[in-house]
Amino acid sequence: MFAVNGSTFLNNSLSGVPRVFPRSTQRVAAPLVVVAAVSSNGRPGDRNVSVLVENTSKEMVESATSSSSPSAIDKEAKSTVGGGVEDVYGEDSATEDMHITPWTVTVASGYQLLRDPHYNKGLAFTEKERDAHFLRGLLPPGVVSQEIQVKKMMHNMRQYQVPLQRYMAMMDLQERNERLFYKLLIDNVEELLPVVYTPTVGEACQKYGSIFRQPQGLFISLKEKGRILEVLKNWPEKKIQVIVVTDGERILGLGDLGCQGMGIPVGKLSLYSALGGIRPSACLPVTIDVGTNNEKLLEDEFYIGLRRRRATGQEYSELLHEFMSAVKQNYGEKVLIQFEDFANHNAFDLLAKYGTSHLVFNDDIEGTASVVLAGLIAALKLVGGALADHRFLFLGAGEAGTGIAELIALEISKQTGAPLEETRKKIWLVDSKGLIVRSRIESLQHFKRPWAHEHEPINNLADAVKSIKPTVLIGSSGAGRTFTKEIVESMSSFNEKPIILALSNPTSQSECTAEEAYKWSEGRCIFASGSPFAPVEYNGKVYPSGQANNAYIFPGFGLGLIISGAIRVHDEMLLVASEALAEQVSHENLEKGLIYPPFSNIRKISAQIAARVAEKAFQLGLATRLPQPENLVRYAESCMYSPNYRTYR
Ligand SMILES: NC(=O)C1=CN([C@@H]2O[C@H](COP(=O)(O)OP(=O)(O)OC[C@H]3O[C@@H](n4cnc5c(N)ncnc54)[C@H](OP(=O)(O)O)[C@@H]3O)[C@@H](O)[C@H]2O)C=CC1
Ligand SMILES: CC(=O)C(=O)O
After folding, report:
1. Which residue, among 285, 472, 493, has the nearest Cα to 388 in the 3D structure?
2. Which of 62, 293, 336, 539 has the smallest C-beta neighbourhood within 10 Å, fewest atoms?
3. Which of 268, 460, 477, 501 to mutate to test the pocket of ligand 1 (most atoms within 8 A of CB)?
4. How does pLDDT run across 252-270, given as a tens digit for each residue?
């Protein structure tokens, strides 16, 4: 269901050295900007980028050109990225009668340097750097370290009472000083995750038109049909390793937000860098705008997207196909394309269609499945028994629900040797029409059919709980407050420790709150939710509540694919990612009732996940980074982006 059979690619002819992010903490760097006034494929005026930096000293230019001349850069690109990346502006492919523009190399300095988010360090520029880079007078005289900047930013951040203000402050910082943004996020991940991610990103998407300041990713709309390759070339970064793309039709549990869904790829990719260590410049957020069926947005004067109803059928699939082809042509075989928040009527088809030709991953189907399986493996240490001894009931039979169900069935099948058709029978799903049963099969969407077991029809969750008597109840409906008191009490009546996962996001859509779950189960349930809840006090005991969110998986999963140079995603990679995450849950966590480790350790966790995913890619013959590094955990860690400031010569 998820991806391709590994054996198809065992004899793939792709080879070459993968993209590795050099860690240059000890080296002294120059804030080098390679710029060119160019035209692509001899079409003068097609693309004119011209950044002239004055006050650039001879020494700086020499040092910059000696370490990173265009040819050096070109060589690096050739050695690390396939596809059309090397000949970005068509210089090599241009014939003699075509026009091309020569590259120039300059060093960012002075006023420009302060406005370049990649290189800006604000007041952290040293005296020497202020002299060398023409910054005198452009900054107040005080010099402060990055640590103090972080402290100050956190102090400021905590003054905002409104979550959206914090979100906007974080986005402003990302636009102004990228390294400080990531340092802040990495050092304060538990506090800031709810700001840049769920739940606040949901509100940001709802109000994206009003708060929009700067484009943070590529908008590809129906207007760009036939020109998507050209649009990709407009993005300033050329060496892209991960693309997160949405069409905005199912944003969290908030429905169709059209073009305003851009907040999701932006948020997910900031987690790719902060949690998984992928270089920010290697990440590309994309929103495909095919219109929206959200009437409120269509009438909203601040709406930023196409004012038309959604394209469907051929019109939709042609645009998506052009996008997928252009990505491969521009960035090569090894760029990871993560589908995010597509509606299920497109999500499953896109994954199936492109799973055999591209490195694609659907976070809502696959990432969610992997994170939930990890939580269940960990929870077994608290409730006892094997996975096969449990009964699972889902509210919600869409991407998340059926994705999780399939991975649980796969894992049970792997553990017991029972066929998948048998292991699926331990899993039941309820959708908006009730329990999915055999008698409904003709009217079911294809992804629900494997779950249509023999049972009398039941049209509501409360009755399904009473009849199925699940040990595990999972909410993946996007419908808030659907785990009622009656349902939680019912779960608690036949389970000593019911496992209850309310996965839906944002907080408003959670099937129940942590407080409700602990209170109604008299403190006996094992609970986790998609969006975070504060610890709950019940009967004099404090229950910290865990977060079952695919943010635990996708950053490390993607890192594993990248460091191994994987060319396809395989189900077995999802299983090993779950195992790796489950292993990170300590006795101490379990004693508190937590089935996930704290996010504060996430970079270490991501390295463990990455190593296991990479190892699996090598085993399956899907990796192209040869030879396999000896210690994959250490290798993953060494590849991770560090947000600490660099010292400029
Ligand atoms: N924690 C995490 O990491 C993740 C959380 N999620 C969350 O899960 C939710 C669902 O996402 P996804 O699976 O992609 O969405 P889908 O739209 O694919 O699926 C939603 C499912 O819920 C069912 N449903 C909706 N309302 C009700 C209701 N009142 N009673 C019973 N069933 C209902 C739908 O029924 P029908 O098919 O009949 O329409 C459908 O089967 C979202 O809120 C999302 O934020 C998603 C991914 C990751
Ligand atoms: C977390 C996530 O991917 C979602 O809610 O859609």
Report:
1. 472
2. 539
3. 477
4. 999 999 999 999 999 999 9
Q: Whole-angstrom Cα distance, residue 448 to residue 425?
A: 13
Q: What distances in angstroms separate CA 336 from CA 22, 304, 515, 562, one per listed residue? A: 19, 27, 38, 8
Mode of pairing for the β-strands spanning 427-431 and 434-435:
antiparallel
On whether both 493 and 603 belong to a single domain, the answer is no
The Cα 617–Cα 611 span in angstroms is 10
Minimum-distance ligand to the CA of 339? 2
Place of tokens 């959200």: 294
User: What single-letter amino acid sits at 587?
Assistant: H
Residues 320 and 371 in one domain: no
- CA distances from residue 288 to 143, 323, 489, 585, 643 in whole angstroms, order as listed: 43, 9, 44, 37, 30
Tell me if the pTM is above 0.90: no
How is residue 37 written in tokens?
């006034």
DSSP-assigned beta bridge partners for residue 537 = 542
Residue 530 CA to ligand 2 center (angstroms) comes to 8
Which ligand is the nearest neighbour of the Cα of 505? 1
Strands 103-107 and 32-36: antiparallel
| Residue 397 CB less than 6 A away from ligand 1 | yes
Domain assignment present for 189: yes
Is 250 part of any known ligand binding site? yes
**Closest ligand 1 atom to the C-alpha of 371?**
3
Q: Are residues 67 and 190 in the same domain?
A: no
ipTM of model over 0.90 = yes
CA distances from 12 to 77, 310, 567, 614 (A): 22, 38, 9, 17
* CA 197 to ligand 2 center in whole angstroms: 9
Where does residue 611 fall: left (phi above 0), alpha (psi -120 to 50 degrees), or beta otherwise? alpha
Q: Is residue 138 part of a domain?
A: no
d(C-alpha 172, C-alpha 402), whole Å: 38
Walk across the sheet containing 427-431 and list its strands. Answer: 434-435, 427-431, 392-395, 472-475, 499-502, 526-529, 546-547
Of the three residues 332, 358, 384, the one that is the final residue of a domain is 358
Q: Which of 333, 358, 383 is the last residue of a domain?
A: 358
Dump pLDDT digits (tens) for 435-494.
Answer: 999 999 999 999 999 999 999 999 999 999 999 999 999 999 999 999 999 999 999 999
Examine the domain organization and report whether 391 and 453 are in the same domain: yes
Question: Residue 498's CB: how many other CB atoms inside 10 A?
Answer: 24
Does a structural domain hold residue 116?
A: no
Q: Is 300 part of any known ligand binding site?
A: no
pLDDT, tens digit, 9 for 90 and up, residues 558-589: 999 999 999 999 999 999 999 999 999 999 99
The domain of 562 spans 555-577+592-638
- The answer to whether the CB of 245 falls within 8 A of the CB of 288 is yes
- The ligand with the least distance to the CA atom of 371 is 1
Domain count, the chain: 4
Ligand 1: which of 476, 481, 483, 545 to mutate, judged by most atoms within 8 Å of the beta carbon?
Answer: 476
Would you name the residues annotated as active-site residues? Answer: 197, 268
Nearest to 455 by CA among 439, 473, 471: 439
Same domain, 632 and 532: no
Residue 644 neighbours by CB distance under 10 Å: 12
177 labeled binding residue: no
